Amino acid sequence: MNRKMAKALVTAFLLATLTSQVEAQGTTAFKKGNFYFSWGYNKEWYTNSTIKVNQPSLGNHFAFVNVMASDKPGWDKGIFNQAISIPQYNYRVGYFFKDDWAFEINFDHTKYQVNENQLIHVKGTMDHKPVDTFMINGPNVLKYQLNNGANFFLFNLVHRKKIGAVAKNIDASVLLKGGVGFMVPHVQNTMFGKDNDAGFQFGGLDLGVEGTVRLTFFNHVYLEYCNKLVLTDYWGLSAYEGKAKQVFGTYEMILNLGGTLNLSKNHTEKKAVVLN
After folding, report:
1. What's the pLDDT tens digit per position in 152-205?
2. Where in 127-263 does DSSP place strands (E)?
3. CA–CA separation, 88 and 44 (whole Å)
4. Rounded CA gap, 51 and 70, in Å?
5. Cα–Cα distance between 209 and 203 in angstroms, integer?
6. Which of 163, 117, 135, 5 is nearest to 65 (CA)?
7. Phi (first) and psi of residue 261, to 5 degrees
8. Closest by alpha carbon to 112, among 154, 155, 153, 67?
9. How many CA atoms does the CB half-sphere of 222 hold within 13 Å?
10. Is 13 helix (H, G, I), strand (E, B) or coil?
């Protein structure tokens, strides 16, 4: 065996030993009894949606068909030029009830705005008469926004898949999440020049799945990148002299910064024994 090969084998052995020791120690951030909290920001893309409107006193029962909408990130024209609560933010609060299994409250403050200058198909009944026409959207046709939040609440079951140590005191994991919840949107709209009574309200139910890559630093601080799909079914939304409903899908990209805290009695006792 030549010197280079021997050196390579020794190096490989030392690296394997070090890696196994780091993996054996691992992070305790996903153990039973751990609590975590994070805050972050998001970017959204929405599927096209049909907004169905019912205004009985006006003889209206029609739909804006296949409408396009966009989000409003808030920091797209410069970072930190507004209060931290104005952009599209999110938070997660979770608790590991079992090693690698957690329950999480998951909230995303997202903004939904129907795009102007698009060709909108209006179909149904207006003033008791049938209508089936196309209009270029503007303020006097449809100004529709969930702009103080489409506001997705989800109650998630979370499962952690270990990747391992990527550097000293940095551990990587994948979190898989799924859950159901509800929405509390701030509904504001103008339909054919008539404004609604804008405000927050219960808006319906949602269903979501999320995949997250989390880097945990020194076992207590973490940074995570998330990709999320949400299906929302809104109903009973405020409109002038009536109500509106719609269903749309959302794709989100999210970046969070968070921390963990172990609340387990056993963990506290073990730490006390070590210190003694």
Report:
1. 999 999 999 999 999 999 999 999 999 999 999 999 999 999 999 999 999 999
2. 129-136, 142-146, 152-167, 170-183, 186-191, 194-195, 199-200, 204-217, 221-239, 242-262
3. 9
4. 15
5. 20
6. 135
7. -145, 130
8. 67
9. 30
10. helix
- Note the pLDDT tens digit of each residue in 48-96: 999 999 999 999 999 999 999 999 988 777 676 777 778 999 999 999 9
Spatial CA neighbour of 245 closest among 198, 208, 205: 205
3-state secondary structure 19-88: HHHHHHHCCCCCCCCEEEEEEEEEEEEECCEEEEEEEHHHCEEEEEEEECEECCCCCCCCCCCCCCCCCC
* CA distances to 133, 196, 197, 205 from 189, in Å: 21, 6, 8, 20
Is the CB of residue 173 less than 8 Å from the CB of residue 165?
no
201's tokens: 């309200």
156 burial level (CB within 10 Å; 0-12, 13-18, 19+): buried
Structure tokens at 46: 């929405």
C-alpha to C-alpha distance for 64 and 124, rounded to whole angstroms: 9
What are the residues facing 41 on neighbouring strands?
Answer: 89, 255
Determine the 3-state secondary structure of 196 from DSSP. Answer: coil
Q: What would the two tokens of residue 86 be? A: 């104005």
Length of the chain: 276
**φ, ψ dihedrals at 57, nearest 5°:** -65, -20
Alpha helices per DSSP H over the chain: 3-25, 265-275
pTM of the model: 0.84
